[in-house]
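User: Structure please.
Assistant: Input sequence and predicted structure:
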Amino acid sequence: MKTMIQLLDDLTPLNRVICSSDYDDTIEYLMDLLPFKELTYPANDNYNGWVIPPKWDVKAAHIYHGSEMIYDGRWHPMAVMALSAPFKGIVTREELCKHLHFDHRFDDRIPFHFRQLFTSWKRDWGFCVTKAFYDSLPPGDYDVLIETEEAPGPLRVLDYHLPGKLDDTIVFGANLDHPGVANDGVSGVAVGVALFDMLRKRDLKFSYRLVLAPGIMGNEYYLGRMPEKEREILLEGVMLEMLGSPTPLNLQLSRSQNSNIELALQEALGNGSIEHRVGEFESLLLNDEYIWEAYGVPMSSLSRFPYPEYHTDADNVALMSEGRLSEALTLIEAAIDNLEVSPVIKKKFMGNICLSNPDYDLYIDPGQVAFGDQLDDTRRRKRMLMDIIPTISRPTTTRQLAMEVGLPKQTVEQYIRAWQECGLLEVSA
């Protein structure tokens, strides 16, 4: 198996736009590393208003001023705006400037212009350049060429499923596109591949999936075109995003903030000395998480966003740190280890049981101050646990419940066993 840095060295330079020859090469490369299943969606498969862009490759791209070529659009995968329309002609400086895109924050970086990938029915031609280049253009006419080769899609997604004792599946996702950059997307791919190379050598309780897809659109097709019964076993997940930069780790929680994997990640972060932040949904970044949430899959994310090189050509392999990648991988492994040893609870009843009935004897009296009861924190937390159990809608670990109510895991497991003995819960070791 290649190291994570080797994978980044190999894949970063490629022009990995959603549909392209370099994206196809990336698919083939990864299928040699793990036994992925490839899912393809044909070019004419318009779903929920999404339109798969054409397969697009840049064959030639340059700007001449007089007899001198002043810009070679092949020097970097982002130097021609993604999905640029072809163009050939003589234009004035004023007209050329309308088609040059630069990063207003930096003099010497080119930006990632990606909007046309999602509006392929309305396309313009253009280059991405540095602000210094843009500002240096003299008056006069310019000879411009953008030559592309285009063909119908398809959209391609990689899916690696590791079955465990339970059908309930924890998903790890990463973006496979984003041309010419290392941290944004492909660093998460590197960590995900290393993680699943480790997981496939273990006996697993949960099932796991690694989904590598183009950003936003790839996950929309993956989930939308998935058979409903298969989608129903997707328990929860984590997007792996931007994990190699020298910036702190960010754990962004799902909308519900209580999935098993995100609580396990929080616990692992709390037990170590990793510099990190934890934030609510959409408070740290907005990426494919919202796609998964729309299909009922709680989706947290692990990232190192923001970082100053984001969406510029400075997001390169030199920015990457093997230590930072390994730190993220070790954290995820620790969280999975915790999940794998924690009993999993599934509810076997509907509504609310009369827990004071002697057939159950599970009622926890919170006490009443008016009658002279001395209320204590432990009893209050046990009562919280009693009230939470009827609301369980998805498989839950005892570790998750213990974290939610702030009780020792042994205390929670003892109370859960009493429910199990009454036939109200199914508990998988």
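Residues 344-428 form one domain.
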